[in-house]
């Protein structure tokens, strides 16, 4: 098995805050969205096979499981395409409503509660030493970190599920995106929380933690989460299209597509931020240059058919983040007033207990 290669370990700073990230380029024999699971016999998609998916063995940590394989015509992707639009729209709409509810609750609390009582409650110690320590730790976190840790927790739970032998077939079917699978749509979402190796999980969570504070400070936690979920599905769709066009087999999983959207947004929003490789601090470059190099490598991988990572998913995620920076925030998020007005009317008309 080739030794995993980790490079481009970087530290960046913007507006007085430091962000640290890994522009990941690592490879193993199990390469998915950055880590793809190879079939035991290097299964090829036969142009003579039927369009109905077939089952082929996939070597895993606990032995072989079965995965759908077969030709994938573009006409089969209409359902994932509709799902991508619907899920992305629902994610952004849910994020807007979540922000509305948070602001509404703050306004209600500020009107109902005396200021001195609210201040006293905010500093009221919790019962139990461990609760006090936990509350102190949570209070010292940034908004980005408070959003990162629940996301990381979900990813860790899914990672542990991969370690249960009886779950293997279920995990391959529903937590790996595969355009040849009978389950097409929900794996596009679930695969973005799925990691098969500890190194893959660590690298992705390290990058997400490093950039979450800056991205949330710029977007707000609600908009950030809406973008993150949407980018994960869009990157899966980009992977589906690439695999269908090139007739290449392989399952994909990992948060890299969604994380690439965060990198694309931050590096585009703050292009002049100076980055440096953590082990070579004398070598520095701008964030704008970094995202261009990363995308150039992924574009080369797509054109040349490299199989180190799911380069199409990386490109789809990065382009989503860049598009959101230039266009999405202004023409989608800032135009959410009709939705919020409808939600406000719906809440007002609902019977109260």
From TrEMBL:
<keyword id="KW-0496">Mitochondrion</keyword>
<feature type="transmembrane region" description="Helical">
    <location>
        <begin position="81"/>
        <end position="100"/>
    </location>
</feature>
<feature type="transmembrane region" description="Helical">
    <location>
        <begin position="248"/>
        <end position="266"/>
    </location>
</feature>
<keyword id="KW-0812">Transmembrane</keyword>
<feature type="transmembrane region" description="Helical">
    <location>
        <begin position="224"/>
        <end position="242"/>
    </location>
</feature>
<keyword id="KW-0999">Mitochondrion inner membrane</keyword>
<dbReference type="GO" id="GO:0005743">
    <property type="term" value="C:mitochondrial inner membrane"/>
</dbReference>
<protein>
    <recommendedName>
        <fullName>rhomboid protease</fullName>
        <ecNumber>3.4.21.105</ecNumber>
    </recommendedName>
</protein>
<keyword id="KW-0472">Membrane</keyword>
<keyword id="KW-0809">Transit peptide</keyword>
<dbReference type="Pfam" id="PF01694">
    <property type="entry name" value="Rhomboid"/>
</dbReference>
<dbReference type="InterPro" id="IPR022764">
    <property type="entry name" value="Peptidase_S54_rhomboid_dom"/>
</dbReference>
<keyword id="KW-0378">Hydrolase</keyword>
<feature type="transmembrane region" description="Helical">
    <location>
        <begin position="312"/>
        <end position="333"/>
    </location>
</feature>
<dbReference type="GO" id="GO:0006465">
    <property type="term" value="P:signal peptide processing"/>
</dbReference>
<comment type="similarity">
    <text>Belongs to the peptidase S54 family.</text>
</comment>
<feature type="transmembrane region" description="Helical">
    <location>
        <begin position="147"/>
        <end position="164"/>
    </location>
</feature>
<dbReference type="InterPro" id="IPR035952">
    <property type="entry name" value="Rhomboid-like_sf"/>
</dbReference>
<feature type="transmembrane region" description="Helical">
    <location>
        <begin position="278"/>
        <end position="306"/>
    </location>
</feature>
<feature type="domain" description="Peptidase S54 rhomboid">
    <location>
        <begin position="185"/>
        <end position="326"/>
    </location>
</feature>
<dbReference type="GO" id="GO:0004252">
    <property type="term" value="F:serine-type endopeptidase activity"/>
</dbReference>
<keyword id="KW-1133">Transmembrane helix</keyword>
<dbReference type="InterPro" id="IPR050925">
    <property type="entry name" value="Rhomboid_protease_S54"/>
</dbReference>
């Amino acid at each position: 098995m080739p030794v995993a290669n980790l490079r481009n370990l970087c530290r960046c700073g913007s507006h007085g805050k430091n962000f640290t990230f890994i522009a990941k380029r690592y490879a193993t024999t199990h390469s998915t969205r950055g880590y793809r699971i190879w079939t035991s016999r290097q299964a090829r998609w036969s142009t003579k096979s039927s369009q109905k998916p077939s089952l082929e063995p996939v070597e895993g940590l606990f032995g072989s499981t079965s995965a759908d394989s077969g030709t994938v015509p573009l006409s089969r992707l209409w359902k994932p395409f509709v799902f991508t639009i619907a899920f992305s729209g629902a994610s952004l709409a849910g994020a807007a409503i979540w922000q509305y509810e948070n602001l509404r609750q703050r306004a209600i609390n500020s009107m109902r509660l005396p200021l001195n009582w609210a201040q006293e409650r905010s500093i009221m110690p919790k019962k139990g030493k461990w609760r006090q320590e936990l509350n102190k730790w949570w209070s010292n976190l940034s908004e980005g970190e408070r959003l990162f840790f629940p996301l990381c927790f979900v990813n860790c739970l899914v990672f542990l599920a991969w370690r249960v032998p009886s779950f293997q077939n279920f995990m391959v079917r529903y937590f790996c995106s595969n355009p040849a699978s009978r389950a097409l749509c929900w794996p596009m979402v679930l695969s973005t929380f799925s990691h098969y190796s500890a190194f893959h999980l660590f690298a992705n969570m390290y990058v997400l933690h490093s950039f979450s504070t800056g991205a949330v400070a710029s977007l707000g936690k609600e908009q950030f989460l809406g973008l993150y979920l949407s980018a994960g599905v869009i990157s899966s769709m980009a992977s589906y299209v690439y695999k269908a066009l090139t007739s290449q087999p392989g399952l994909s999983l990992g948060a890299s597509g969604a994380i690439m959207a965060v990198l694309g947004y931050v590096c585009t929003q703050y292009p002049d931020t100076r980055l440096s490789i953590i082990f070579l601090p004398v070598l520095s470059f701008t964030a704008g240059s970094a995202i261009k190099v990363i995308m150039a490598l992924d574009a080369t991988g797509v054109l040349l058919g490299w199989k180190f990572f799911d380069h199409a998913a990386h490109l789809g995620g990065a382009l989503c983040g860049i598009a959101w920076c230039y266009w999405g925030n202004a023409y989608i998020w800032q135009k959410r007033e009709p939705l919020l007005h409808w939600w406000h009317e719906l809440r007002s008309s609902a019977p109260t207990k």
